[in-house]
Write a structure and sequence with these properties.
The chain has 143 residues and is of the alpha+beta class. The protein has one domain: Chemotaxis protein chec (3-Layer(aba) Sandwich), CATH 3.40.1550.20. Helices cover 36% and strands 24% of the residues. The chain is built from four helices and eight strands. The chain has a six-stranded antiparallel beta sheet with strand order 1-7-8-4-3-5. A two-stranded antiparallel ribbon has the order 2-6. 21% of the residues are buried.
């Protein structure tokens, strides 16, 4: 399970380090793609295959299914970490997430999200403003 927030900075080659605590989870590779909220999402190969199975079961006759599959799979890259635990963020994904230099990696349970610092700040403000309302709507905390 991936938890926490980590602040990093891209180097001149567009590399970013994966937090040391969780690097071992990506020893067999890492798959990165566009997230739904203008961030980059990163999966272990096992989680990526699980996501693929879910998406593959969606009907190709449904335009929303096709749109989501295009977003997720056409922007995906299979990467490996170097010996220092870094990966190169592809330029197309950096542009999509508006990542220039300062980056936040957020653990989101079964995957990571990689945000520009500015994007993460906006997302945090939204979370703080809407969390109670969303939790109530989803029936969370009613046990």
């Amino acid at each position: 399970m991936f938890l926490g927030e980590y602040e990093y900075r891209l180097d001149q080659k567009g590399r970013i380090a994966i937090p040391p605590k969780i690097r071992e989870e990506f020893q067999n590779g890492i798959v990165v793609t566009r997230g739904y909220d203008r961030c980059i999402v990163a999966y272990t190969p096992v989680e990526w295959n699980r996501l693929y199975e879910i998406n593959a079961a969606m009907p190709t006759t449904d335009s929303s299914s096709r749109l989501i599959n295009r977003l997720v799979f056409s922007g995906a890259f299979n990467l490996t970490l170097d010996r220092l635990g870094r990966m190169i963020l592809p330029p197309s994904l950096r542009a999509y997430a508006k990542i220039r230099e300062d980056v936040v990696i957020a653990g989101v349970g079964s995957y990571l999200e990689i945000w520009s610092r500015e994007g993460w700040g906006k997302e945090q403000a939204l979370m703080e403003e809407k969390a109670s309302e969303i939790a109530q709507g989803l029936g969370l905390g009613t046990r």
